[in-house]
Automatic annotation (TrEMBL):
It is found in: Cell membrane; Endomembrane system; Membrane. GO terms for biological process: ATP synthesis coupled electron transport. This is NADH-quinone oxidoreductase subunit N. Residues 129-421 form the NADH:quinone oxidoreductase/Mrp antiporter transmembrane domain. It comes from the Bacteria. Belongs to the complex I subunit 2 family. GO terms for molecular function: NADH dehydrogenase (quinone) (non-electrogenic) activity; NADH dehydrogenase (ubiquinone) activity; quinone binding. InterPro entries: NADH-Q_OxRdtase_suN/2, ND/Mrp_TM. It is a multi-pass membrane protein. Keywords: Cell membrane, Membrane, NAD, Quinone, Translocase, Transmembrane, Transmembrane helix, Transport, Ubiquinone. NCBIfam families: NDH_I_N.
């Protein structure tokens, strides 16, 4: 046996078969980088990115079983595979609407595409992290690339301002997380989730462990744009190119919710009295502040930014009730938010390409008379974000509400209901402007094929899942149970 063979036999070889989606994304990013460097062929760059995403999505659906690989630093299980599929799906829809938008704004850069892929790779690392080191690396890779994406809008002051605020606040959040990880490691002697959970079980919590958990919650709360760590969100969302805003508000946020759930359940399952109260307070503050400030917005894009803060509160409220029903509700809401969140922002992206469209509420006057189908799409997205049946947003909020009631957390359930009613003030305002006012212009809208397909797809799924949510709910329940069963694996 050669020296190389002895080394391989001694340390083992990572199972690269379960890393096929990540490998495809990485290779696609490198190919796009070379194409952009040598030819700058815009259609080719978009096509290669879209094909790479499609090929990466297939293994997430066909992989028979997962594995813990890279010497315990990377886990590929049903939970991570499910979120990877939806993250790839979200990114695919962003990519197919990105080029027409950038060209209409005279701010096209091929760098957008491979930066998006690297951000996606970081998110995939996040959801596959069984270890605080992997989790931290994934957060950093995703965050740094998104800072750049948010600030690449050519000659746009708001873009630079928003990206700078995001950089400062995001860097602060990353530093807080690293301090929390250091405290947890100092207390438990390990970065591995299962070892941390065992250590906390065998030894009662002390000040160091509690401080570490609190710092990690604060850092993750900032990444999830929960109040009072949300200050970067409105400016970053409004200033960034709208397809990038959709990517930040949906894909990045969903990855954050997934990693929050995994870290809390697998690393700190026996310290839930600490983190359930912390997340409950952050959720309540996010719901209240996000909804009331959204009421005062005349710019619909900024309104949706504050709306996303409120939805972070709705989703994080599930962590106040550490039960399998609450975890299933969190997963369900996270997954269905993709369709209504992407739909709303890509709707704005498509209309921003039209002449003199500024996303001001007055732009929506009489939209139903100018384009009945577009107005119908936006109505579906607004109703779903509000939580009106038969849209899927109703079942998302209902699942969180029932989980809170089942755990006797009445005060937070009441906050959720009241704030959902308050949100009608700004969601229905958009609908009223579209259907009950005369149009300002009779000009027709010209959508690209990707924009039309994306809006139709999202609106259709919002309605289908609103009528028949069983499949997604069953998937969410299974994933929640698997997460609980994996404690101390």
């Amino acid at each position: 046996m050669s020296v190389l063979q002895e080394l391989v036999a001694g340390i083992g070889v990572p199972n690269f078969k379960v890393l096929i989606p990540e490998i495809i994304i990485l290779l696609t990013a490198l190919i796009v980088f070379v194409i952009e460097l040598l030819t700058k062929a815009r259609v080719l760059i978009t096509a290669v990115t879209a094909v790479g995403l499609f090929l990466a999505a297939i293994p997430t659906l066909t992989m028979e079983q997962g594995d813990i690989t890279f010497y315990g630093l990377y886990i590929v299980d049903s939970f991570s595979l499910t979120f990877k599929f939806f993250l790839i799906l979200s990114t695919f829809f962003v990519v197919i609407v990105l080029r027409p938008y950038l060209e209409s704004k005279n701010t096209y850069y091929g760098e957008y595409y491979y930066l998006i892929l690297f951000a996606l790779l970081g998110m995939m690392m996040m959801v596959s992290a069984p270890n605080l080191v992997t989790f931290y690396m994934g957060v950093e890779l995703a965050s740094i690339t998104i800072y750049i994406l948010a600030g690449m809008f050519k000659k746009d002051y708001l873009s630079k301002e928003g990206a700078f605020k995001y950089l400062i606040m995001g860097g602060t959040g990353t530093a807080i997380i690293s301090y929390g990880i250091a405290l947890v490691y100092g207390r438990t002697g390990s970065f591995d989730f299962s070892t941390i959970a065992d250590s906390i079980t065998q030894n009662s919590l002390d000040v160091g462990a509690v401080a570490g958990i609190v710092l990690i919650i604060i850092g993750l709360g900032l990444k999830a744009s929960s109040v009072p760590f949300h200050f970067w969100t409105p400016d970053a969302y409004q200033g960034a190119p709208t397809p990038i805003t959709a990517f930040m508000a949906v894909a990045a946020k969903i990855a954050t919710f997934a990693v929050i759930l995994r870290v809390m359940v697998e690393a700190f399952p026996f310290a839930y009295e600490i983190w359930n109260l912390g997340w409950a307070l952050l959720a309540a503050a996010s719901m209240i502040f996000g909804n009331f400030v959204a009421l005062r917005q005349d710019n619909v894009k900024r309104m949706l930014a504050y709306s996303s803060v409120a939805h972070s509160g709705y989703i994080l409220a599930a962590l106040a009730a550490p039960t399998d029903a609450a975890f299933a509700a969190l997963i369900f809401y996270s997954l269905v938010y993709i369709f209504m969140g992407l739909g709303g922002f890509i709707f704005l992206s498509a209309l921003e390409r039209q002449y003199n469209w500024s996303n001001h509420i007055d732009d929506f006057r009489g939209l139903a008379k100018r384009s009945p189908m577009l107005a119908l799409f936006m109505l579906i997205f607004m109703f779903s974000l509000l939580g009106i049946p038969p849209t899927v947003g109703f079942f998302g909020k209902l699942g969180i509400f029932m989980a809170l009631i089942g755990s006797d957390i009445w005060w937070l359930a009441v906050v959720l209901v009241i704030m959902s009613i308050v949100s009608a003030g700004y969601y229905l305002r958009v609908v009223i402007y579209m259907y009950m006012h005369e149009p300002k212009s009779s000009a027709r809208f010209n959508l690209s094929l990707g924009e039309a397909f994306t809006l139709a797809f999202m609106a259709t799924f919002v309605l289908i899942l609103g009528v028949y949510p069983t499949i997604f709910w069953d998937i969410s329940s299974i994933l929640g149970n698997l997460l609980i069963q994996g404690v101390g694996r």
